[in-house]
Amino acid sequence: MKKIKLAIQKSGRLNKESISLLEKSGIKFENFKDQLKVNCENFPLNIYFLRNSDIPRYLSDGVVDIAIIGQNLIYESELNVNELMPLNFSKCRVSIAVPEKMKFEKISDLNKMKIATSYPNTLNKFLSKNNLDCEIHKINGSVEIAPNIGLSDAICDIVSTGNTLYKNNLREILTISNSEAVLCNSDSFDQSKKQTLDKLIFRFNSVLRAKRSKYILMNVPNDKIKTVSKLLPVLKSPTILPLEMKGWSSLHTVIDDDKFWESIDIIKDAGAEDILVCPIEKMVL
Ligand code: PRP
After folding, report:
1. What kind of fold does domain 4-90+180-210 have according to CATH?
2. 259-272 burial code (b ≥16 CB/10 A, e <16)
3. Ligand 1 mean position to 205 CA, how many Å?
């Protein structure tokens, strides 16, 4: 298999989770501070640790083959970057926010405002689409302080928990786009490396599927097994093992983490008892 070059964030909101995903996928590499690139010991992969904003350019120029970045960055870069799979972390949105006390009722209230942002292309596309005429003030960091120091009337920035806006007395008024981390390549991807890429995607999928699921075991009276089984989502069919106690069985299956509490209430009402829930490390289908 041909070696593939993967770019991940050197620091910032995607760095930790990108490393964790690679490690959970069984890829071994040294992870020390301030390194630029590293060779993986047990998978044909070189990892490049790069500045977030530089990654789309390296990708489209073919310096790296694939990357883990946020969709917000792809949209902003306007380069030929293709999303291969969502990675279900670093979820955020690009939004417009105004000072808490500013009156804002409709989108046209933005007209003629000065808006500070690190996402000028994203903002520009949004303004053009809505026929708004605003002044875009590009800054590279700490966008949220711009209105407080009189640099702008509003801001356009990433919002995740909303804490940064809250601390700076800003109010989110419009969401331009939603974003999460994705694995991507570009049109210049060398197809002779596709086998390695497919293998990596297969591993990522197994890790992500496991993260979304829980292994669940419960005791069920034999006459309720059919009812309980019907209520649970299963892979093929649930595993049913007899208990030593007459008339009872242990039922095992996998459920979606999202629907966890909902499922528990339903199966308890249907007669399940002694429910155990365990994390799943990998899920290979
Ligand atoms: C972004 C953004 C805000 C913060 C919002 O910065 O610029 O500062 O996250 O997150 P919150 O809604 O959870 O408070 P990031 O941490 O990505 O770093 P940056 O300042 O380098 O963009």
Report:
1. D-Maltodextrin-Binding Protein; domain 2 (3.40.190)
2. eeeebbeebeebeb
3. 28
